[in-house]
Write a structure and sequence with these properties.
The chain folds into two domains: 135 residues, Rossmann fold (3-Layer(aba) Sandwich), CATH 3.40.50; 152 residues, Tumour Suppressor Smad4 (Sandwich), CATH 2.60.200. Helix content is 25%, strand content 29%. It contains six helices and 18 strands.
Length: 310
């Protein structure tokens, strides 16, 4: 067996909505009662669960034929140590791709769509039946790949968090974020509902909604130019930050609201939030860094790029 054929494949899976409900309510019957009591379509949950189980069987058969493999649930990503030559496969939605990429260090990731009729799968170019034919090319580094720029937040205590789509810096509840911001030699104190730092990949998501809303409000009150918004390519070599709902007062300013962070730059933030400041990435609020009073965060382009198999 060649070294390429001996590469281990790590499959990242997830619980379906139905499995999550059964885990919460202990039995299938209780989960059904809960959903139908709310007027939800229980059969849709069943169909999704069956489709995912079917796709998982196909993928597992491909991995058994391949040889070395391991299956982990996405909940264990934070503690799993990937080998440098691992091939990573995700079976889930686009969000799973993003939430897996940030724990990798250049390993190729194959996004598999478990139910193409349900999920668009922008980051999921493969169906379960294609995996067996895709793996040999990936193992020999002969498949086309695309690079994904990531953001990285480094705290003054050494903690680090990456973001594939974006980083959120702000309060963990619906209160004001208080912090000092420094960008390209200018410093000011701000009060807002937090900041978004977006990558090129994330520019189609949260950042887009922020900018679109700002343009719409400005146009509605007669101060806009009516300009549209163009997302950035996923391999864009810089980040973009945007401050959400900034509040101007005697103690807070609003001049540093939007800007690009080049590869050689950092955006520096110092928290003034006593106990509710956080930094999380890619919408995963459960995986966060505490960003409380006195902590300093340096936000910049991550030196490591994500690698997506095409």
């Amino acid at each position: 067996m060649s070294a390429a054929e001996n590469r281990k494949v790590v499959l990242v899976t997830r619980q379906t909505r139905l499995e999550e409900l059964v885990a919460r309510y202990q039995t299938l019957g209780q989960a059904q009662f809960y959903l139908e009591h709310l007027g939800a379509d229980f059969t849709d949950y069943l169909r999704e669960n069956e489709a995912y189980a079917s796709s998982l069987r196909v993928v597992a058969e491909a991995l058994q034929a391949w040889g070395r493999y391991q299956i982990i649930d996405r909940a264990h990503l934070t503690n799993y140590i990937f080998a440098a030559d691992d091939i990573v496969v995700t079976l889930g939605q686009d969000g799973m791709v993003a939430n897996t990429l940030k724990y990798l260090n250049g390993q190729p990731l194959v996004g598999v769509n478990p139910e193409p009729r349900r999920w668009d799968g922008v980051l999921l170019p493969f169906e379960p039946s294609q995996l067996a034919s895709v793996l040999p090319g990936v193992a020999k580094d002969r498949r086309a790949t695309s690079l994904v720029t990531m953001a990285e937040a480094t705290l003054s205590d050494g903690q680090v968090l990456r973001g594939v789509n974006d980083l959120f810096i702000g309060p963990k509840s619906h209160t004001s974020a208080l912090y000092d911001i420094e960008y390209r030699g200018t410093k000011e104190a701000q009060s807002s509902s937090g900041l978004i730092v977006s990558t090129g990949l994330g520019s189609t998501a949260w950042l887009r909604s922020i900018v679109t809303g700002s343009i719409g409000i400005a146009n509605a009150v007669g101060h806009g130019q009516g300009e549209g918004y163009e997302p950035m390519p996923r391999d864009t070599d810089h980040l973009v930050f945007a401050v959400r709902e900034p509040f101007a007062s005697r103690a807070s300013q609003t001049s540093l609201l939007y800007g690009e962070i080049e590869e050689s730059e950092v955006l520096t933030l110092r928290s003034r939030m006593p106990d509710n400041g956080v930094i999380f990435s890619d919408g995963m609020e459960s995986d966060f860094l505490r960003f409380t009073a006195g902590m300093e965060a340096r936000i910049g382009v991550c030196a490591t790029r994500g690698v997506l198999v095409e």
